[in-house]
Amino acid sequence: MTAETTDPTKTTETTATTETPAGTPAPKPPSPELYVEVTQFYAHQMHRMDGGDFAGFAESFSPDSVFAPAGGGGLHGPDAIEAAARAAAGRFGGAQPRHWFDMMTVEEGADGTVSTSYYATVTVAAPDGSVLVEPTCFVRDTLVRVAGTLRARSRVIERDDLVARARAEG
């Protein structure tokens, strides 16, 4: 960041440090390469899910993965995640779901794990052309490398309507 001195022809270089409210340094931004790798990971993962490749979707999770869907419960490991994804798809009754992720944060830990958070929306297009928008969600993931490839080790999904209801009920 450049700051001007009283002489408009001279500038000095200063280092900006962003701190969190607790006074600890904020995480550094990911490299452009990591950010692209993470966004490609999610694109491939959701293309599999929305395309009905539930085994391929489940393979994007690590063997020790934990998936906490909105509304509670927990799934442990790719086999359980695949079975739940397959069962959940049945509720669409032949309509085409699309998962949309946006406003993503990506932070790389010193241990190589990658923490992400993002907003998720699911739209469901029916054969008659109508589109249903499901409740929006906030998602937090931890990604790890398995044989050099990103895999999701944990996923926690919070539905915005359920969070708002709990907040309103106190």
Walk me through the structure.
This protein is α+β, with helices and mostly antiparallel strands and 170 residues long. Helix content is 28%, strand content 38%. It is built from four helices and nine strands, in the order ββααββαβββββα. The chain has helices at 32-50, 54-59, 78-89, 160-169; strands spanning 2-4, 11-13, 61-68, 75-76, 96-108, 114-125, 131-133, 137-146, 149-159. Strands 3, 4, 5, 6, 7, 8 and 9 form a seven-stranded mixed sheet that branches. The radius of gyration is 20 Å and the shape is globular. Residues 1-18 have low confidence and may be disordered.
Structural class designation: alpha+beta
> Total helix count?
4
How far the N terminus sits from the C terminus, by CA atoms, comes to: 43 Å
Please tell me the overall pLDDT.
Answer: 88
Can you count the beta strands?
Answer: 9
Helical content (DSSP H or I, runs of 4+) = 25-40%
Major sheet characteristics: 7 strands, mixed
The succession of helices and strands, N to C, reads: EEHHEEHEEEEEH
How would the global form be characterised? globular
- Quaternary state of the chains: single chain
Q: β content, as a range?
A: 35-45%
- Rg from Cα: 20 Å
Report low-confidence residues grouped into runs of 5 or more: 1-18
